[in-house]
């Protein structure tokens, strides 16, 4: 069965930063994931990916934060997007 694109959004936060949200419904599941979604959620600042959530085949659900690759828990797609946006907002908050 072909992948079905269910979300593709590019949201500019300001002149130099954006969110890119791409989600597909796939069958069978991506190797390493226990759900039917293939996704890539990215926070990009000045053409550099600062944060990315994805589920690359064989790696399962994880995020990239700088050079680190960290496993994440997938509950459902809405929670995943909420968690991603929350983390972006934390990164954007002045220190």
From TrEMBL:
It holds the Pfam family TumE. InterPro entries: TumE-like. This is Uncharacterized protein. It comes from Serratia plymuthica.
